[in-house]
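Try it yourself: sequence plus protoporphyrin IX containing FE, in.
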Amino acid sequence: MRPNGIKLSRLHQAALYGAFAVLFASGLAWSILHDGVPVLGGGDGGESAIEPLLLSIHGAAAMAALLVLGSLLPQHIKWAWKGRMNRSTGGLMLTTQALLVVTGYALYYAGDDGMRALASRLHLVLGLGFPALLVWHIREGRRRAALQKAASRAGRDSPFPPPPLRVDLPQRLTTSAAPLRDRCSR
Ligand code: HEM
Ligand code: HEM
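Structure, out:
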């Protein structure tokens, strides 16, 4: 693990990918069973016995995912943000997660049916798009981290000495040194 903590340990990665894989699979399976695949035709409207089980697995994975997301804040997100690394796709990740959490919450507590239907659709669309966003975020993050590393290595191994530091002496010193310089050059 890199000391700055932006790169995740194997255990951290396993927890993150595991929680999101279960969320994605259970959400997708529930959606197909409940509504059918739009291209192939709608669902039959009846609830299959496995649907409540899928939602309870989904709810448990959502809690695990919240823990994992929280664990990213103190190092991964904080340090990458401060170092201005991969902010664009990182910001998209944060926005998507926030919307998934808010719409997931609304699925439980939204008062009217219209709001619940809207939350359900938005939640599904964001959830189905999330793996693609995650892959993009990781590839972009690794690409930029590699570029930064290569740039700092190039600077360190450069055969040219660093440019001399320019020291601006106060005018008082440069004028008082002039007679001395004239005497030496005579
Ligand atoms: C929902 C929030 C986020 C999740 C789930 C997430 C997840 C990940 C994962 C799984 C990786 C690959 C880790 C590895 O290769 O060890 C990664 C890489 C990275 N992420 Fe995030 N991230 C999130 C937010 C952010 C934010 C907000 C930023 C920036 C401000 C960011 C910056 C980076 C960078 C720079 C890398 C490349 C690390 C490297 O290979 O050195 N991430 N992210
Ligand atoms: C990663 C991709 C995800 C997909 C594909 C997905 C998909 C779904 C689907 C299809 C439902 C059922 C919608 C309905 O009842 O109308 C659902 C429910 C729910 N989702 Fe997700 N979701 C994902 C991620 C998340 C995340 C990150 C959270 C929160 C951290 C979350 C929290 C919830 C909650 C609380 C419910 C309500 C469960 C219930 O009614 O018992 N989901 N999700």
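One thing you can check immediately is this: Helices lie at 10-35, 50-82, 87-109, 113-156, 171-185.
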